[in-house]
Amino acid sequence: MRDVPDDTLRILKTRAAKSGQSLQNYVQLLTGEAALLSLEEAAGEARAIAARGNVTADDISEAVRDMREARW
Hints:
Elements: H1 6-18, H2 23-35, H3 39-52, H4 57-71
């Protein structure tokens, strides 16, 4: 890996090894997780959508529940 401080690289390698993955697979996993919305971001988007339309609190709850289930 280029332009990664030695300490950070060492930590990533250790975490990858602890999870039984190669460094490449571990970093790909992190990259995929980084692309997902956090619950806070998802809630903010849901509020913005609700403000623009005729969405109920139940609709928002269902959307957040669906996003949580998609993560697992």
